[in-house]
Amino acid sequence: MRDGSGHAHGIVRREFLQVGFSGFLGLSLSQILTARALADRVAKAGGGGSGSKPRAKSMILVFLTGGLSHLDSFDMKPDAPERIRGEFKPIDTAASGVQFCEHLPMLAARAADLAVVRSMSHKFTNHLNATHELLTGHSQPGAFFDKVASRDDYPCYASGLDYLRPRQDGIPTGVMLPTFLMEGPLVWPGQHAGLLGPRHDPWQIKQDPNQPGFRVDSLALPVGFSVERLGRRQTLLDQINHHQNEALTQPSTGGDSMSDQRARAMSLLLSGKVSGAFDLDKEDPKTRDRYGRHTFGQSLLLARRLVEAGVPIVQVNMGRVQQWDTHSQNFKNLKEHLLPPTDRGVSALLDDLKSRGLLDETLVVMTGEFGRTPRIGSSTGNNNTPDGRDHWAAVFSALFAGGGVQGGQVVGASDRIGAHPASPPYAPADLAATIYQSFGVDPASEIRDRFGRPIRLCDGQPIAPLYSA
User: What SUPFAM superfamilies does the record tag this protein with (predicted)?
Assistant: First the structure.
């Protein structure tokens, strides 16, 4: 699958030979050194549609790839029949009248800072289509079963923000870590800029920050290179490229020249604004311990460090692709492998942001692409063991904190067995509108694809109750 520039899945493969090494953060030059065109944009970024004052300067999206069971986490049904309510018990939280799963005690203790939306809903039960829906706020164009990523897709939130608010300081608008959502030949949609073109793609970090000696190699200068030598090489490149700007400009995407991209590369290398965030050894070991010495915890810690470095949107994929896809041993996997590290890591993140004075300006969102079937062992088209739950998009839950969100509340409700909304549902488009508005971006803004065609940024409405208890 190729985009209009001939790139397979839109992933460009140019070598960074001009500065002596190949690629930043495992990405191509075109993805990382995104040139921003300002003059030809008609999109506007302004106040949110509901009139509420935007609060967020950043967002951390905790993505539970595969789909968390809402009935075994934030929307338990203790009075439902056994084959629906499952094995776990509910516990009271710090928010009056609100209960969470017994295996989420730390988040339960912080529920006064949390808002749970229990009536999220859409129609896609295929992982790829549903992931695009949640990560962009739009249905995937021409969606069919396992439709992979393409440049016809809608942009992820970081890419939409990057288009509307281009940066000139070398700091990326979006970073996704620590796993790239891909299985065999299937590249999950919703991780890229899609129709906006590769210049607006977020950075993809594919290393585990919990591994000893974790570092993003391509943020370091190559062996034998000094800053001075790199600077001299840049001067030579500038002279060579002086007469090539016209040829290297990409008019179909409103782009700048490749020499502009190299200048931003050099700025990033020499400033170290972002590179320092990846040095987790600079963190107090006790802080690292609070997050948990596992991939989930250290990825969330890295997200906090990137936000502090000025990155507006960080997406943390909690596990490898589909790790929350509990078709079998739903309760064993949640209890032993998934809920405890998530509980600890997200709780530490909330505490850390609050203690640093960042929670009020950092929106934290946690969601999967859908929920799980109300009846244990039932099927919506997949093979499930008697102790598994299948895909379920009709209703599921999402967690919110920070960025002006009023904690200690539940928004919306599912029915008595957690099968359908019992109150007006909220769609992924409404999630998208909430995210964009939190940044002070009008969800109805017009963007233009790489061919200059106008497209509405978002068709949803912000989830207003999140901002009023």
Answer: Alkaline phosphatase-like
